[in-house]
Design goal:
The complex is a heterodimer of chains A (about 120) and B (about 120).
Chain A (H helix, E strand, L loop, with lengths): L4 E3 L2 E4 L5 E6 L6 E8 L3 E9 L2 E4 L8 E7 L2 E6 L8 E8 L9 E2 L3 E5 L1
Parallel strand pairs in A: 2-11
Antiparallel strand pairs in A: 1-3, 3-8, 4-5, 4-9, 5-6, 7-8, 9-10, 9-11
Chain B lengths: L2 E3 L4 E5 L4 E3 L2 E3 L5 E8 L6 E7 L6 E3 L2 E6 L4 E6 L8 E9 L9 E2 L3 E6 L1
Parallel strand pairs in B: 2-12
Antiparallel strand pairs in B: 1-4, 3-9, 5-6, 5-10, 7-8, 8-9, 10-11, 10-12
Amino acid sequence: DAGVIQSPRHEVTEMGQEVTLRCKPISGHNSLFWYRQTMMRGLELLIYFNNNVPIDDSGMPEDRFSAKMPNASFSTLKIQPSEPRDSAVYFCASSLAGHQNTEAFFGQGTRLTVV
Amino acid sequence: AQKVTQAQTEISVVEKEDVTLDCVYETRDTTYYLFWYKQPPSGELVFLIRRNSFDEQNEISGRYSWNFQKSTSSFNFTITASQVVDSAVYFCALSEESGGGADGLTFGKGTHLIIQP
């Protein structure tokens, strides 16, 4: 299995621009998570989905952030408009929830720089 | 609310020394899961171990061992005979009920471990 795949690996954008981060979870996993890592705040859970349905988005910092999961094999995290303080590494993770639940497997992350 | 505390921000030891990374957690649930992840300089997050709240048996995997004590709400991680390749940031994490499979992880701030040759 290729693992969780995130794209792009690096993104540099200007303040005010729209940014879209993409994630392909491990095939067969039914839970998907978006995390953000910064020096100041560490690793924070932004939002998670179970069976493509958003369950908890209380970690999403502002209305500028939105996430979708149109199907079991794809999710996006969008920031519009982006601001310098959004600069961070964004991780996507997936797992199998239920009777045979597994730990979360992480993608390699997207390093976002907003200038 | 759940919380994970890793009081050691950075630890530096010489290769071959043993080192213990501390983790203290808070949760109101009786069913929960504890994890350790490793983040090497390359940046990815690597799963090391998961324990559920009903299993306090210590675990050993090669040079790695974990000590889970519910009485002190701690889940400490020991590396025996450390090696330079162990240098990384180590995160302790907590998930309530679903084992990290359905409700996300609360991470500690991490401990940066430096192994000097």
